[in-house]
Every structure is written in structure tokens, then in C-alpha cells.
Design brief:
The complex is a heterodimer. Chain A is α/β, with parallel strands linked by helices. Chain A is built from 10 helices and 7 strands. Helix content of chain A is about 40%, strand content about 10%. The longest helix of chain A is centred in the N-terminal third of the chain and has 26 residues. By secondary structure, chain B is α/β, with parallel strands linked by helices. The chains are: A alpha/beta, B alpha/beta.
């Protein structure tokens, strides 16, 4: 097992972590209300409970490093520095959203901040992130790609193909498995022949690491080791973060496949409560500071909802526009 | 102009793109020393090295996905999938991601990805190595599809595909690799989306592409000997399709035969027929006819395979019946 030096954030980082944790949580809780009251159509896959993974992993990345996300992806976008206004507007199907309202909850990208897209197909992003890592290597750009996926995606063929390719070519990729113990309703123990997904790394010539996915510091520490390894040209890492989604798979999930006692035991490990306690313990902030940061993050959610509500729907001509790129048009990448 | 084989013409497009643009690289199974299953990439490894002529394990889904990831981050990958049948393994990546990124993610997303693959039967390779699956991609907006019939078009369409900022599927044909034709020197681009009139005529329009564009020309020669003047349209590009060229031809001839190697139901010919019915019905002097493979998997046994695949005589007979009633 790879040795993991402890990660101690600067005071500014610690405050940013709290802001992002609360932003991710507050955003998702608000989205659920908006889906329930009909303001947002379709479905949603809340990230509540798993925030420490996105926030911890993105904390050690450079702005030019890439992440690629999953269908439960709002948290990854926010943690990489995404704009809550454009994210919320996309959920409302508005023209000001990340995809101009044409992508929706599972299909958003912001290449300018190094976010290569969330993805509606379980495991669909794993080979794409692998290709981004190949691109970084071919160009010698020094960029690292963090590829987020869940325990369910780890059973897709593309997971195995991609890790084999990345191990073979020593690509600058960090495969971050958010093992939240359930692929929709299917428990990990009923879907995977081994207990720890990290153990699969051995088959692909890369180190396997595990981190407590409820603990920002643990995730950041492990990701930092993997990112430094990738950046030094020593190849990919598989990092498994054991975590838990506090809510259902999507809005209609009654959670019949797990007990309320199990949920309560994981809620006791809430990453936000844990981080607040840590900040007080280390003197990174006082209680009044914590409350102020929390209010600030929740105000950003309020502002995002207001922005989304005030934004226009796409014009009718948007329906048929943008299927293909046309020569000479401006592009962000 | 020199005479080149189809495979040499494809290779020339690859070589020139590799020389011109350091962002272009090749990705695929056995494309290195082996030169690819049909020899298109032979010699390129020695010329450009293993970083750019990148041999992969047998992992079609991830080859396609990795190419998408490389493409959206600014590279210009050219993938070879050894047989078109193996596109089945890449379909999530192509249909759900490559085709949709730009529409879903907006103008920031460009997927300049080329995927070359050999289609077609006629060699008794059996049901999983002989298919023509290009019609599938007419139903997934966001991927362009080209299917060159001549060495010159093979070079020009592949070169255009590599320059294109969108995913482009280049459908090659196993029976064409060894065929020869005159090919211009240096960079040559055949615009994607434009059909070619291979033979002007006034009695009936034969629309085909890839290997069958040549078969349609042979059919036209036979028909000419019987006094029937057939116009042959080579579509060259299936997405976007040059519907205007077909309609212009039908306005002259009043009769249309759609020819393809894929299975009949839901095929390219069905699409052409529907478009002409919708847009140019008044010019038709008779029903639109289709020549296509039967709705069966491709059989192995040589006589059965020939029975299944469209034959020269089928095209001649169909056009004759249409013209003579």
C-alpha cells in the first residue's frame, strides 16, 4: 500500500473547502425541492453525502488539470470551480445554462475550468478521461486527469479496458472510484466479486489506494500522492473512496434496499460536520466565521436559483443548431 | 496524377496529415508493424514512431472513447477499427458521446475524431466480418459518414475528414483496397457532403456509394447496350447526404434505383426513397426501387453469400423493369 503523507490545508484552503462543501450540499438540497415543486423537470441524482470526494480531490488539482464526471456530477463541477448560476440554469433548461439548456442535469461541461463533462452513461466517461490523459502525455502538457466514477461503473467493461490501457501506457490519470456502496439499488457486495475495488489495480499495473470518502483531508492526501505520481510520469493510480449517498439514487427512490439504521450510521460521519469540527479544532476559523462562510455559500445557491428563474428559455432555432461544428466559428478549446 | 491503389491513396492521406499536423495520431489494433488488417498503415510506424502510430490492445470501446477524450482536448486522432462489425463494441462511445457532445456541451466542444473501418462482404468472411452497418449512423445525429468508391475519393475524403472538427466515420470497402485509379499529387480534399455524377444519363438514376458505385457504373454500361441511358450518382457522403444531387437527377430521368450493400429494411436506400418521395414525387414516372441485401445475417457459404449480396444483374434487371415496365 502506498504511503500517504497527511494533508494539512492552509487557512484559506480550509475556508474554501467549507464553502465548497456547503455549496455542493446546499445546491443539491435546493435542487431536490425545485424538482419536487416542478420548477425543474426530469430527474436528479443528488450528491449529498459524497461531497468530500469531489472537494478533496479537486483541492489538490491545478486549474489546468482535467476532471471528468459522472451522472451524479453537480458536485464535481462545483468543486472544480464551476459557476452555480450556469449549473442551475442548465437544470432549468435555460439558454444561460452550461449547455444552453440542451444537456441537462447529466450532461454539462466547462472546458475552461478543466471539466470535461458529466455523463449519462454509467462508466461512459472512463475511456474518455483516459483519452484526455493520453492527449496530455502526447503533448507533454503536464496536465493530470482525474476520472470520477462509481462502484457500479467499475463493473463496466470500459473500466477494465481503460485501466489496462492507462497502465500499459503509464498515462497521467487518477481513477477515483466513489464507492457509495450501491449501484442504484444493487449493493456492492452483490455486484462485485471482491470487497475492495482498489484491489483491482494490481491487474492493471498501477497502485491501488483507499481513502475515507467522508473525510476531505484523507481524500486530498491520497489524491495528492496519485496526482504527483501522474505528473512525474510514473503512471496512473486507482483510488477508491468509500462514501455514501445520504439520499436516494434519484428523486423517485424509496431506498427499500437499505436500512434507516445504516443511513443514520453514515450520517454520523457527515463530511461537513467533520470539517467544521476540524476547523475549530485547528483554529482555522471561529464559530462565527463558519456560520458566515455557510451563509455565503447558501446565498450563492439562492442567487443561482434567481439567475436560473430570470433566464430565458432557448430560442426555437436552438433546436437544430449545434449538432455539428462549422469551420471558422469560435471555440473555447 | 498517378495511379494508386485505394489502400495507397488512404495511406497517402494519413501520411500527409501526419506530416502536416503534429496533433494527428493513429490509434488502433495491429496498425504498427503489421500495417493494419488490410495494410493501409504499413510502413507508417517506421516513419512516424510508436507515439503517433499507437497500437492498442483489443479494446474497441476504449479505443473509441480514448479517441474522443483526445479529440475534445485538442488532438486529432484517427482510429482504425479492424472490421466494421466491431463498431458494435464502440457504439456507446460513438452514439452516446461522440455524436452528442457538441449539442449537449455547446460550442466549447469539438470532437475532431476520424474512425476508419472496412465494411462489406464478398469474401466469405461470415456474419460478423462482412456487414455494412453505415445506415445505423443515419439515425444518430452528430456523426458524419463518408464512403469513398475510388482511390481519389479515398484520399480526398479521408483528408477532409481529418481536417473536420466533427466525428467522421470513414467507411472503406474490403473489395476496393486493391483497386486502382488516378490520384492527384499533394493535398487533395473532396468536400464532405457532395455527391458525384459518375455518368450522366436521361432514362433512370442509379444511386449508390462505396463498392456499389462501381457496380452501378458497370450496370449502366450494360443498360446502355440495351438502349437505356442510366445516370449514376455516387453519394460519397451519407451524412450529410446530398439530397439535392439525387433530386436534380430524378428531375431529368423520372426514375430512381437505390443501391446499397446493407440490409434492405431501414437502410440508406429507404432514406433516399423517402426523401425523394417527399420532395420530388411529381418528377417520378414510376415507383422507386431498392437493390439491397436480404434481411438476413451474411451467410458464409460462397453461393449463399452471392445470393444475399446485391449483384450486377440485380441492378440491371431492376433498372430495366423500371424503364420497360
Amino acid at each position: 500500500m502506498t504511503a500517504v503523507p497527511a494533508f494539512t490545508p492552509s487557512t484559506a484552503e480550509a475556508r474554501r473547502v467549507l464553502y465548497q462543501l456547503v455549496l455542493c450540499r446546499g445546491f443539491e438540497e435546493r435542487v431536490l425541492k425545485l424538482v419536487t415543486d416542478g420548477s425543474i423537470r426530469g430527474t436528479t441524482h443528488p450528491y449529498v453525502g459524497q461531497e468530500a470526494v469531489a472537494v478533496g480531490a479537486c483541492l489538490v488539482l491545478r486549474p489546468q488539470d482535467w476532471v471528468i464526471s459522472t451522472h451524479r456530477g453537480h458536485g464535481h463541477l462545483l468543486a472544480k470551480g464551476g459557476d452555480p448560476n450556469r449549473l442551475m440554469a442548465e437544470l432549468f433548461g435555460k439558454a444561460t445554462g452550461y449547455g444552453g439548456g440542451k444537456g441537462g442535469t447529466q450532461h454539462m461541461a466547462d472546458f475552461a475550468i478543466g471539466h470535461l463533462g458529466s455523463n449519462g452513461i454509467t462508466g461512459g466517461g472512463i475511456p474518455i478521461g483516459t483519452g484526455a490523459a493520453l492527449s496530455a502525455k502526447l503533448r507533454g502538457s503536464g496536465q493530470v486527469v482525474v476520472i470520477f466514477f462509481g462502484d457500479g461503473a467499475a463493473n463496466q467493461g470500459t473500466f477494465h479496458e481503460s485501466l489496462n490501457l492507462a497502465g500499459l501506457w503509464r498515462l497521467p490519470a487518477v481513477y477515483v472510484c466513489e464507492n457509495n456502496l450501491y449501484a442504484m439499488s444493487t449493493p456492492h457486495r452483490e455486484a462485485c466479486a471482491i470487497e475492495h475495488i482498489a484491489d483491482r489495480a494490481a491487474a492493471y499495473g498501477m497502485p491501488g489506494m483507499q481513502a475515507d470518502g467522508m473525510d476531505v483531508q484523507a481524500v486530498a492526501a491520497a489524491t495528492r500522492v496519485a496526482v504527483e505520481r501522474a505528473r512525474a510520469g510514473r503512471g496512473p493510480t486507482l483510488l477508491e473512496c468509500k462514501t455514501y449517498r445520504f439520499l436516494g439514487h434519484s428523486k423517485s427512490d424509496q431506498r427499500v434496499y437499505r436500512s434507516r439504521e445504516e443511513e443514520a450510521s453514515w450520517r454520523e460521519r457527515d463530511p461537513i460536520a467533520r470539517w467544521r469540527a476540524l476547523m475549530l479544532e485547528h483554529g482555522w476559523a471561529g464559530a462565527a466565521d463558519l456560520d458566515a462562510i455557510t451563509r455565503e455559500a447558501l446565498a450563492a445557491v439562492d442567487a443561482a436559483v434567481e439567475f436560473a428563474r430570470q433566464s430565458p428559455f432557448p430560442a426555437p432555432e436552438a433546436l437544430t443548431e449545434g449538432v455539428f461544428a462549422t469551420p471558422g466559428e469560435s471555440c473555447a478549446n | 496524377m498517378r495511379e494508386l491503389t485505394y489502400w495507397q491513396a488512404l495511406q497517402e492521406a494519413l501520411r500527409e496529415a501526419l506530416q502536416r499536423d503534429p496533433l494527428v495520431f493513429l490509434l488502433g489494433e495491429d496498425i504498427g508493424e503489421y500495417g493494419g488488417a488490410f495494410g493501409v498503415t504499413r510502413g507508417l510506424l517506421a516513419e512516424f514512431g510508436a507515439e503517433r502510430i499507437r497500437c492498442t490492445p483489443i479494446s474497441e470501446a476504449t479505443i473509441a472513447g480514448a479517441a474522443i477524450g483526445a479529440a475534445v482536448t485538442g488532438m486529432r486522432p484517427v482510429v482504425e477499427i479492424m472490421f466494421m462489425d466491431f463498431l458494435t463494441l464502440t457504439m456507446d462511445q460513438l452514439a452516446n458521446h461522440a455524436a452528442k457532445f457538441r449539442y449537449m456541451y455547446g460550442p466549447q466542444a469539438r470532437v475532431p475524431l476520424v474512425l476508419r473501418t472496412p465494411a462489406g462482404g464478398g469474401r466469405s468472411y461470415g456474419a460478423t466480418h462482412s456487414q455494412s452497418l453505415e445506415a445505423w449512423f443515419l439515425h444518430v445525429p452528430g456523426i458524419k459518414v463518408v464512403a469513398p468508391a475510388t482511390p481519389a475519393d479515398a484520399k480526398g475524403l479521408l483528408a477532409a475528414a481529418i481536417l473536420d472538427d466533427n466525428p467522421v466515420l470513414v467507411v472503406e470497402h474490403k473489395l476496393l483496397y486493391a483497386t486502382t485509379g488516378m490520384v492527384p499529387d499533394g493535398e487533395v480534399l473532396v468536400p464532405i457532403g457532395r455527391a458525384a455524377v459518375r455518368r450522366p444519363g436521361s432514362d433512370v438514376t442509379l444511386v449508390a456509394y462505396s463498392y456499389y458505385a462501381g457496380v452501378a457504373l458497370q450496370a449502366a454500361e450494360q443498360l446502355a447496350a440495351e438502349g437505356i441511358d442510366a445516370e449514376v450518382i455516387d453519394l460519397r457522403t451519407l451524412v450529410p447526404m446530398d439530397t439535392g444531387a439525387v433530386i436534380e437527377s430524378v428531375r431529368k430521368t423520372g426514375r430512381l434505383v437505390c443501391i446499397e450493400e446493407g440490409t434492405r429494411s431501414g437502410g440508406v436506400g429507404a432514406e433516399i426513397a423517402a426523401r425523394v418521395s417527399e420532395l420530388a414525387y411529381e418528377y417520378l414516372d414510376g415507383p422507386i426501387r431498392r437493390v439491397a441485401a436480404a434481411d438476413v445475417p451474411i451467410p458464409f457459404s460462397p453461393p449463399l453469400e452471392q445470393l444475399d449480396l446485391p449483384q450486377l444483374a440485380d441492378i440491371v434487371d431492376t433498372a430495366r423493369q423500371l424503364c420497360r415496365g
